[in-house]
């Protein structure tokens, strides 16, 4: 199939008008019709229903239109990839994601695309989504599902387990696992309301007795330090506490009877999907986090 025939068919399928397609493509109407007929002969099916005056797609035409859109979009990405190899890609991330997940990804990306420039911005989820909508960042990395927005695209990269951290000398520390009923009895610290980590905390205990935290802390680093000092426990993504646990500053306790997880999600503008640097970074993100 010739690309010009696919491009012509995509335009006819989108506009449902041979006249409008000819105008957009700067072709004579007869040329548009000839290209559609050539495509039909090659495929051996009718793509347009010619029984009525108005242009309609046959079921085979509808199926092909879905593929032509993807093919032409991929072609545009390829054109970007060879024409702008030194463009900048801007990444937004939550502080926890930026600190614990992003460095290895960016190092790998730079090794594959040494001419590309990278700019990293940190903020809370609301700030990051606004930055994506404004075009200030190309992609943002957050925990949880993104907001419903027709202009945004999102993809879950990996699911991160939620764990409870406790002071290293806590009675449950040696067990490493505990039922939720035992954990409900413990004093807990949490982040402030409106924070994504607070949503994780409230969601985890929604099926148990409502549990108000004994303290609210805005910084994850401070929260972990307070747990290490013996103030209580906290519920956080495992990636956020791994370094502290490796230094034996806190003990990690898995919840036995609950599947507590949160998604690490990348979100970007749909219209920015052809940016080759974004495509390259997304590929590295998928591979690195899957590994």
Q: Count the helices. How many?
A: 12
Major sheet description = 8 strands, mixed
Query: Strand percentage, roughly?
Result: 15-25%
Q: In one word, what is the shape? A: elongated
What's the Cα radius of gyration?
26 Å
Proportion of residues in helical segments: 40-55%
Give the helices and strands as they follow along the chain: HHHEEHEHHEHEEEHEHEHEHEEH
Pfam family, one: LysR_substrate
Family: Belongs to the LysR transcriptional regulatory family.
Domain HTH lysR-type: 1-58
Organism: Streptomyces lavenduligriseus
Could you write a compact summary of the structure shown?
Helix content is 46%, strand content 21%.
Question: How would you describe what is shown here?
Answer:
It is built from twelve helices and twelve strands. It is of the alpha/beta class and 291 residues long. It is elongated.
Topology record:
Elements: H1 3-15, H2 18-25, H3 29-43, E1 48-49, E2 56-57, H4 59-83, E3 88-93, H5 95-100, H6 102-112, E4 117-122, H7 125-134, E5 139-143, E6 152-166, E7 177-178, H8 180-184, E8 189-190, H9 196-204, E9 215-216, H10 220-228, E10 234-237, H11 238-246, E11 251-255, E12 261-269, H12 276-290
Parallel strand pairs: 3-4, 3-5, 7-11, 8-9
Antiparallel strand pairs: 1-2, 5-12, 6-10, 6-11, 6-12
Helix pairs in contact: 1-2, 1-3, 1-4, 2-3, 6-12
